[in-house]
């Protein structure tokens, strides 16, 4: 097991350019920060970090970056670059900073932990379009982890302009592939094929439907397993 590393404090400068202003989230082996560009002070980004990455983690981050760099849709984040910080044993991905809570956090703030149907339709409309855009790429791109926590709702707009984030386990669909993804499932949002024969575009449709269910009822659906 790798030694747990300390995340960067506020004010830390990464690669002599990006100033850490706030930690947006933290996982087992990394974090996401809001950073400001020292060269152009008005530029604010999100910086995704993997601490002491294995070769597989490094490859996944590079794949996520290259995948998103070639996409252009308002419901998806724009990614700019991946770079290493060998001195601190880290690898980073620089992307758009979207100011606002994720949809799961927003849901939990509601009196009954759910939204009205008109509000849900308004919030998820750009996510439906983003998913359609991903699935019409050649080859189709499968997100594989659509859920409220991976949808950011911008502060401005009252639900307009929601963005689908976290493509860390996305893949390009190969109909001949039988790779399974059981270890990547989010309970309640993972389709049956996550646990068996492999994922396809219907996997995302299931996750989106489960997201609709959660937002409308206030309950996470029973896991597909």
Question: What would you say this structure looks like, in words?
Answer:
There is one protein chain. The chain is globular and about 45 Å long. Residues 176-183 have low confidence and may be disordered. The protein has a 6-stranded antiparallel sheet with strand order 1-2-3-4-6-5, covered by helices on one side. The chain has a two-stranded antiparallel ribbon with strand order 7-10. It has a two-stranded antiparallel sheet with strand order 8-9. It has 4 helices and 10 strands, in the order ββββαββααββββα. 25% of the residues lie in helices and 22% in strands. The chain starts with 12 loop residues before the first strand and ends in an 8-residue tail after the last helix. α3 (117-135) packs antiparallel against α4 (201-217). By secondary structure, it is an alpha+beta fold. It has 2 domains: 13-96, Phosphorylase Kinase, domain 1 (2-Layer Sandwich), CATH 3.30.200; 103-217, Transferase(Phosphotransferase), domain 1 (Orthogonal Bundle).
Short descriptors:
alpha+beta, Phosphorylase Kinase, domain 1, Transferase(Phosphotransferase), domain 1
Strand content: 15-25%
N-to-C SSE series? Answer: EEEEHEEHHEEEEH
Report the CATH topology name of the largest domain. Transferase(Phosphotransferase), domain 1
Major sheet characteristics: 6 strands, antiparallel
Quaternary form = single chain
Q: What is the CATH C-level name of the largest domain?
A: Mainly Alpha
Q: What proportion of the residues is helical, as a percent range?
A: 25-40%
Q: How many separate helices?
A: 4
pLDDT average, as an integer?
A: 81
Shape: globular
Q: Helix- and strand-based class?
A: alpha+beta
Count of domain modules: 2
């Amino acid at each position: 097991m790798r030694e747990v590393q300390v995340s960067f404090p506020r004010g830390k400068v990464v690669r002599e350019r990006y100033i850490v202003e706030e930690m947006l989230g933290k996982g087992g082996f990394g974090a996401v920060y809001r950073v400001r560009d020292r060269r152009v002070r008005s530029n604010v980004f999100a910086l995704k970090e993997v601490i002491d990455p294995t070769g597989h983690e490094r490859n996944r981050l590079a794949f996520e970056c290259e995948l998103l760099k070639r996409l252009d849709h308002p419901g998806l984040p724009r990614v700019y670059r991946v770079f290493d910080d060998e001195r601190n044993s880290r690898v980073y991905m620089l992307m758009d900073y979207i100011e606002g809570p994720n949809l799961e956090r927003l849901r939990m703030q509601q009196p009954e932990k759910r939204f009205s149907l008109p509000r849900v339709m308004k919030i998820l409309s750009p996510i439906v379009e983003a998913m359609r855009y991903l699935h019409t790429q050649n080859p189709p791109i499968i997100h594989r982890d659509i859920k409220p926590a991976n949808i950011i709702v911008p502060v401005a707009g009252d639900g307009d302009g929601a963005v689908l984030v976290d493509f860390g386990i996305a893949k390009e669909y190969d109909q001949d592939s039988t790779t399974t993804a059981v270890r990547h499932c989010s309970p309640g949002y993972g389709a049956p094929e996550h646990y068996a024969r492999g994922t396809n575009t219907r996997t995302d449709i299931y996750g989106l439907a489960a997201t609709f269910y959660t937002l409308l009822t206030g309950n996470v659906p029973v896991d597909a397993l």
